[in-house]
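Researcher: Go.
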Amino acid sequence: MAGDDLDGTPAAMGPRLRAARERHGATLAGVSCATGVPPSTLSRIETGRRRPTLEVLTRLAKEYGASLDELAGTAPAPVAEPRTSAPHSFGDDKAVLPLTRYVGGLHAHKHVLPAVEEPPARPRQVSHDGHEWLCVLYGRLWLALGDQDLVLAAGEVAEFDTRTPHGLANAGPGGPVEYLVLFGPQGERLRPRTLPPPGRGAR
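Model: Structure:
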């Protein structure tokens, strides 16, 4: 890792740093205050528009409690063990199970919010570059999107530009909430396609 920029780092660097921040339960603003790196710089790094310098990566590693190799994706492969689906723990807040290997473009996670005994306060909102699509698998999910408040039930989906302030929470008593998230760090959107009706050719 010589030089100001980490030449040869994988394309997954930005999404990996974003995942590390989310596992740490921190916002861009919070990490900026702790490391002295401007939020705009952190955002560009996470979306792949800027490669981090060694100094910045060192600060982030210290803040996230991770090694440089872990953040750069150069850590030695672990000893082979049976694969499990154990999620990353977020304490009392949530658990996140990555479903992709962060090789660039769209990537996916499964999120689980624990059950709550009382209706929560309005979710804290964040904003950043990108585009997000989510689908509720179980329970009721509260999406605070800008000035709107939406409660999504199992089978319902939402799609939005993540530059719009947004926050998520369990909508209330009744059990945990499970949902899938697809995130495009460069602002990628899903492109629905369907088969033509029987008897009609594709256009």
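Model: Residues 1-10, 76-92 have pLDDT under 50 and may be disordered.
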